[in-house]
Write a structure and sequence with these properties.
This protein is α/β, with parallel strands linked by helices. Helix content is about 50%, strand content about 10%. The strands form four sheets. Strands 3-2-1-4-5-7-11 form a seven-stranded parallel sheet, with helices on both faces. A two-stranded parallel ribbon has the order 6-13. It has a two-stranded parallel sheet with strand order 8-10.
C-alpha cells in the first residue's frame, strides 16, 4: 500500500459530506478548512427544505460552534470569504433518491465535479423509531452509493459505520464484511426490502387505528427493537447500520468504497484543541450521572474493556483511508478504529478517574452547593440489579400503591412519577445491557496496516494525521482532557 501526502491529495478536490451537522462531520470539515484551505469545494448536505434553512443550519449548528475557533483565528477577517468560496450548502434528505437534491442544475454540477464522498449521516439512538433508522442508516447508505455511481470523477466513497454492528458477539471481532442477508444468529430470511414493507404496513395499520403521534412513536420504537432481535442484533441502531453496510457492499460495483467502523467516539485528543465534545455520548452519560449525584450504582463488569476513541483520531484515520483507496477498488476495505486491541481502557479505571476528578472539582447543584461523590455500588449481573431495584425502589413503590389506594388515589402524581422513573431506568438498562457486559475486542489489523503504511510512506504528514491509540495516556486524557471537555461543552 503506497501512500501519498494527505495534504496534496486534498488540494483541489471536491468533497461531498453527508450528515454535515453531526459530531464527526464537523470535525472532518474543520480539519480540511484548517490544514488544506486549497481544497476546491466542500459540498455539505444538510437536511432542510430549502437553501435558506440549510444555510441557517450551517451557521448555527456547524460554523457557530467553538470547534471552529482555531480556523477562524487563523484566517481572521478572511474566514467569511473562505467559507463562501469553498463551502456550498446543499439542502437535501439522505432518505430520498438523489439525496433529495431538488435543484437539478446543482445536482448535475455535483455529479460532474465530486472526487470524494464521505457518508456521515446517521441516527445513533439505540431505540430510534424503526422507520427513521431504516430510512437514514440503511436506505441512506443505498442512496449515497447510488449517487456516487453517477459521479464519473469519483475516486473513493467512504462510509462511516460502527464497530458495534457485531452485536453481542464475544472474543476477537474481525474486520469482516456483512454479506447481503447475513444475520448474527443464523436465522435466515433477512430481506431489506421486506423490512421496508413491514414498516409501511405497520404505519398504515396505525393510521387506520387513529393512533396519536406518541402512540405511533412508541410503536415504531418497539418494532425496531423487535425486528433487530429476530436476527440477533441487540438494538435498532446497530441492526440498521449493519444493513447499511450490506447495501454498500452489494451496490458499490466498480467503485472504490471504504467502510470505517469507529468504536465509542469521545472528545478530541489534540486538534483543533483538546477536549471538544458535543452531546452526551454513551460513556459520558455515566460521567454526567455520576457527577450530578444521580448515578449511585453501576451495572456491568467493572473489569470489562470500554472501547473509546477520540474523535480527531477517527477523522484522521478516515482521511488516510481516503488516500489509500483513491481509485484503488478492493474487495473489502474495512477499518475498525478503536483502542481495545492495542491500548485497552477498563470501566474500573474510568470509575477511578471519575471519582478523583469530581472529588477535586465537584459539580455544583442549582443552589451552588457542591455535590459530593462517592464510590458507586457495582452490580455484577442482571439478577443483582433486579434485587437492588426491588429492595431500593419496587418495595417502596408497592407500599406507595397501597397508601395511594387507602387515601382514595390522592397520591396518584407521586406514584405515577416514581413508577415512570423506574420504568425509564429499566428500559435504559435493557438498552445498554449488551455493552455493560461486553466481552469483545475489536481487531484492527487493517487499521494497523494503514498506520504502518502512513509511517513508512515518508509522504503522509503523520504529525497532522495521527491515529495511533498507543499514544493515549488514559489517565491524562480522561482527567485533563475528556472530563473537563464534557464539563465545559456538554454539562452546561
Amino acid at each position: 500500500m503506497k501512500l501519498e501526502s494527505v495534504l496534496q491529495f486534498l488540494e483541489n478536490k471536491t468533497i461531498l459530506v453527508t450528515g454535515a451537522a453531526g459530531f464527526l462531520a464537523k470535525i472532518f470539515v474543520e480539519k480540511i478548512l484548517r490544514v488544506q484551505p486549497n481544497v476546491k469545494k466542500l459540498y455539505l448536505l444538510l437536511r432542510a427544505p430549502d437553501a435558506k434553512s440549510a444555510t441557517q443550519r450551517l451557521h448555527t449548528e456547524v460554523l457557530g460552534k467553538d470547534l471552529f475557533r482555531v480556523v477562524k483565528e487563523k484566517h481572521g477577517p478572511n474566514f467569511g470569504s473562505l467559507i463562501s468560496e469553498k463551502v456550498t450548502v446543499v439542502p437535501g434528505d439522505i432518505t430520498s433518491e438523489d439525496l433529495g437534491v431538488m435543484d437539478s442544475d446543482l445536482r448535475e454540477h455535483m455529479w460532474a465535479q465530486i472526487d470524494v464522498i464521505v457518508n456521515l449521516a446517521a441516527t445513533t439512538n439505540f431505540d430510534e423509531r424503526y422507520d427513521v433508522a431504516l430510512g437514514v442508516n440503511t436506505y441512506g447508505a443505498k442512496y449515497v452509493t447510488d449517487f456516487a455511481k453517477k459521479c464519473p470523477r469519483l475516486m473513493v466513497l467512504l462510509h462511516v459505520s460502527t464497530s458495534y454492528v457485531s452485536g453481542e458477539k464475544a472474543g476477537l471481532i474481525k474486520e469482516s464484511p456483512y454479506r447481503m442477508g447475513e444475520t448474527l444468529n443464523g436465522v435466515s430470511g433477512l430481506d431489506i426490502e421486506a423490512e421496508r414493507r413491514i414498516v409501511e404496513e405497520k404505519l398504515d395499520e396505525l393510521r387506520r387505528e387513529g393512533a396519536s403521534e406518541k402512540e405511533t412513536r412508541v410503536a415504531m420504537k418497539e418494532l425496531g427493537i423487535q425486528r433487530a432481535k429476530v436476527y440477533g442484533w441487540p438494538n435498532t441502531y446497530v441492526f440498521t447500520k449493519a444493513m447499511g453496510e450490506m447495501l454498500v457492499g452489494e451496490l458499490k460495483g466498480d467503485l472504490s468504497a471504504v467502510i470505517v467502523r469507529p468504536t465509542i467516539v469521545t472528545s478530541t485528543y489534540k486538534e483543533p484543541f483538546p477536549g471538544w465534545a458535543e452531546g452526551v455520548r454513551t460513556v459520558d452519560s455515566l460521567a454526567v450521572g455520576y457527577a450530578t449525584g444521580k448515578l449511585t450504582c453501576f451495572l456491568g463488569d467493572i473489569n470489562a474493556v470500554v472501547d473509546t476513541i477520540p474523535a480527531d483520531m477517527v477523522v484522521n484515520s478516515m482521511m488516510v483511508a481516503m488516500v489509500a483507496h483513491a481509485n484503488r477498488p478492493s474487495a473489502d476495505a474495512i477499518y475498525q478504529v478503536g483502542t481495545s486491541a492495542r491500548n485497552p481502557l477498563r470501566y474500573a479505571s474510568l470509575q477511578d478517574y471519575g471519582l478523583r476528578y469530581f472529588t477535586e472539582n465537584p459539580w455544583r447543584n442549582k443552589d451552588g452547593k457542591p455535590i459530593k461523590v462517592g464510590k458507586v455500588t457495582v452490580l455484577k449481573s442482571m439478577a443483582s440489579f433486579h434485587r437492588y431495584m426491588a429492595i431500593r425502589y419496587l418495595m417502596w413503590l408497592k407500599g406507595l400503591e397501597l397508601v395511594n389506594t387507602a387515601f382514595c388515589h390522592s397520591l396518584n402524581g407521586t406514584y405515577s412519577d416514581l413508577n415512570r422513573k423506574i420504568k425509564f431506568v429499566m428500559r435504559l438498562v435493557e438498552l445498554y445491557r449488551p455493552y455493560l457486559f461486553f466481552k469483545a475486542i475489536f481487531d484492527d489489523t487493517n487499521t494497523e496496516k494503514l498506520r504502518a503504511a502512513a509511517r513508512e510512506s515518508g509522504s503522509v504528514e503523520t504529525d497532522l494525521f495521527y491515529f495511533d491509540p498507543k499514544s493515549i495516556d488514559w489517565e491524562d486524557y480522561v482527567m485533563n482532557t475528556h472530563i473537563p471537555g464534557i464539563v465545559k461543552y456538554v454539562f452546561k
